[in-house]
Design a protein that fits this description.
By secondary structure, the chain is of the alpha+beta class. It contains 14 helices and 39 strands. The strands form 9 sheets. An 8-stranded mixed beta sheet has the order 32-33-35-34-36-37-38-39, sandwiched between helices. Strands 27, 28, 29, 30 and 31 form a 5-stranded antiparallel beta sheet that branches. Strand 13 and strand 14 form a beta hairpin.
Length: 710
């Protein structure tokens, strides 16, 4: 299910790489995993081709704007693991050099010491620590020897201090309580949030500040010492949730100072400022006048270069993770706050101060595309869209007079681009591609056409639907067609590139894919986005039927061979549609979906999600919204199931427990409906391990081919 303010696949890959870094074996003789030389037959995308692609991670620009450092994750299916390597190139994309080529995990490259060195995380010492090297990869040296893994870091602007993230123990183990039972595996639980995303919660990330003398750290201070709170926030928060002041005397950080039940029912995080000299912090969000407007998520602080302002992303309502995510700017001298992005009726997904402190660049989704915008604070928050095209931009960095950004689409994974900071009245900003990480793979593939269609919904609104066609599409043939149901539930169907839900591999298997931006997705105004809350079985489902019914009118669509697939809320959608589709579909696939809403209300760990989206608890008999929600639970319509269904789930998914898929599978079998169950004991809400990913793709297409092609 959707997590606020993150471009999900980037977060997944970052977390996956870090998780492997902590647990990775470190034999010196190990052969590093590098760029693949895969040879592809038939010019069609395969699971092996997807996993052969390098995945660009962190990007950092040198202080003089002349060079760019970045990381790439490479995966090996036979070895079932990944490896991160570091690269550097000139700002125009020339002179690209691989700096590391070893069995260690190197990530988060950061220019330090005025651009003379590159700092990075590496697990060569047996734990994740901060290292440095020359920009040509020589003179590697370990800078920290902290007793624990460092998960993210940032050097102060003056270079004399290090801010870093590490886990601290916040929950006593059974062995702590009973030292004579060190092998006991039972977990004693006394409050909520005992599990989160894919872990039993025993630790919390804390921000630490240490002195740095150029060679190592000393005088390490835990900013949240003795407190059980998280900063950054689990499960996806990283160093972007903390920031140095330009004067290097303060640190701003994101924190939700709640635990247990209070944590489970609230999204009310705030921005705090820690004063290094005084050794204490203050809340920047909770002046009395701000309490109502800033009751939801406040995240990702950034100081302006001149130090006069601090900005962050802000949601208004507590308990609503998909609230309008606006950009808030505070005058540090007066404490006055203003929301400066209101002209953009969608979310600010990431932002960056301009060098002059008078404007801000940000990325946000509108009409199924995520672009870069310029917000001129000096001209009454004048808003200008810089980029155009059928793409999604995913990160921002200043590089001289240009921006450096990652960009992807439904037809290509992330590459690094430079983007001009201005556009003409008639043309978008100039864009130049700097990396070609996977060109040797794309050159061997034919991609299907991606087409935008606007359709009229049952209530007379216009809905954008993406249609992806098979390579070598022949309009004189008839093709089996898949309805893709988006998760979130409020995640955009923009130009995302996925290594699992990849539309091009579906198209390569000769399926047409229909991906509607149904009700409840951002990028079409606040009303469109919010209309799904408390109405899971309502207009959003009618929108799905509109999309598949409209495309089924085309002569090249075989209306007798339609499938329906989706994950998370998309999995719920599949389970719900299975009992409501009136024989439209011939096959279903649900991954990590909600089958029984009543059980989901109690099983999920972040209760604010269930309270907001479901409208309340199922025992609130006078709550009309809640009662409508639970009356639309998919398990109530199993008596109408008549179509083959594949259920997929990970047992480490604590957002939607695996028993949901098991129950759906059991129900189908007991009803006499053909069904299959794919369970992953070691995966969470996603599938992150290479061999599991290939198994997912093979099972997915074997199931569809069985029911839609024979």
């Amino acid at each position: 299910m959707k997590q606020f303010n993150f471009i999900v696949m980037s977060a997944i890959m970052t977390l996956a790489s870090y998780g492997e870094a902590k647990a990775a074996e470190t034999p010196e003789a190990a052969v590093p995993i590098g760029r693949s030389d895969i040879q592809i037959e038939g010019r069609r995308m395969t699971p092996e081709a997807l996993w052969a692609m390098g995945r660009i991670g962190g990007v950092d620009v040198a202080p003089d704007g002349k060079r760019i450092a970045y990381s790439v994750a490479y995966y090996s299916v036979p070895e079932n693991k990944s490896n991160n390597e570091l690269f550097v190139m000139n700002a125009d994309g020339s002179g690209n050099v691989q700096l590391t080529q070893d069995a260690w995990q190197e990530s988060q490259p950061t220019w330090i010491k005025g651009g003379q060195k590159i700092a990075f995380l590496c697990n060569e010492s047996g734990s994740s620590q901060v290292w440095e090297m020359n920009p040509d990869g020589t003179d590697r040296k370990q800078l920290t020897q902290y007793d624990g893994d460092i998960e993210g870091f940032s050097f102060s602007p003056d270079g004399t201090k290090l801010l870093f993230i590490s886990q601290v123990k916040t929950v006593k183990s059974t062995a702590d309580k009973y030292p004579d039972l060190p092998k006991a595996t039972g977990v004693i639980v006394t409050d909520l949030m005992y599990k989160h995303w894919d872990e039993w919660v025993t630790t919390a990330p804390h921000p630490f500040v240490a002195d740095f003398d150029g060679n190592g750290i000393s005088h390490v201070k835990d900013i949240l010492e003795g407190l059980p709170y998280e900063s950054p926030m689990k499960p996806f928060g990283g160093i972007e949730q903390l920031a140095w002041s330009p004067a290097s005397d303060k640190v701003a950080f994101t924190c939700r100072m709640k635990t247990g039940l209070a944590y489970a029912v609230s999204t009310d995080s705030d921005i705090y400022e820690y004063d290094l000299a005084q050794g204490r912090f203050t809340n920047l969000c909770k002046a009395e006048a701000d309490s109502k407007e800033m009751a939801g998520y406040d995240t990702n602080p950034q100081y302006s270069p001149d130090g006069k302002y601090i900005a962050w992303q802000s949601m208004e309502r507590d308990g609503y993770e998909s609230d309008w995510n606006r950009l808030c700017i505070m005058d540090r001298a007066t404490g006055e706050k203003s929301f400066v992005s209101d002209a953009f009726e969608s979310n600010v997904d990431a932002f960056l101060w301009n060098k002059d402190s008078k404007s801000v660049f940000f990325i946000g989704v509108w009409h199924g595309e995520t672009h870069i915008y310029h917000l001129n604070l000096a001209k009454n928050n004048q808003l200008t869209q810089l980029t155009e095209g059928t793409y999604d931009y995913a990160s921002l960095a200043i590089c001289g007079e240009k921006l450096i950004a990652k960009r992807h689409s439904m037809s290509m994974g992330d590459e690094i681009y430079s983007v001009a900071t201005k556009r003409s009245k008639k043309a978008p900003a100039e864009v130049q591609q700097l990396t070609t990480e996977n060109q040797q793979i794309y050159d061997q593939l034919d991609m299907g056409k991606v087409e935008a269609r606007w359709m009229t919904t049952t209530d007379g609104k216009q809905m954008l639907t993406w249609v992806i066609y098979p390579p070598q599409f022949d309009p004189n043939k008839k093709y089996p067609t898949l309805l893709f149901c988006e998760g979130g539930p409020q995640s955009p169907v923009s130009q995302f590139w996925s290594y699992r839900w990849n539309f091009q591999i579906m198209a390569a298997n000769d399926y047409i894919i229909v991906a509607p931006n149904r009700r409840g997705l951002p990028g079409f105004g606040i009303e469109w986005n919010e209309s799904i809350s408390g109405d899971y079985g309502g207009q959003c489902m009618k929108d799905y039927f509109t999309a598949i019914d409209e495309i089924a009118k085309e002569p090249y669509v075989d209306k007798d061979r339609l499938g329906c697939v989706g994950a998370s809320f998309g999995g719920f959608s599949v389970y719900w549609i299975a009992g409501q589709h009136n024989k439209r579909f011939k096959a279903f696939i649900a991954h990590d979906g909600i089958f029984n809403m009543e059980m989901q209300y109690l099983e999920t760990e972040e209760k604010w999600f269930a309270n907001w989206d479901m409208g309340g608890a199922y025992w609130e008999k006078d709550n009309a919204t809640a009662q409508r929600t639970f009356a639309n639970s998919p398990h109530r319509f199993v008596d109408k199931w008549d179509t083959p269904i594949l259920c997929i789930h990970g047992e480490r998914d604590y957002r939607i427990l695996a028993n949901q898929a098991m129950a759906a599978f059991d129900a189908a079998i007991m009803r006499g409906v053909p069904a299959e169950l794919l369970i992953y004991p070691d995966e969470n809400h996603w599938v992150l391990r290479p061999q599991n990913g290939v198994l997912w793709q093979r099972t997915f297409f074997e199931w569809l081919d069985k029911w839609l092609k024979k």
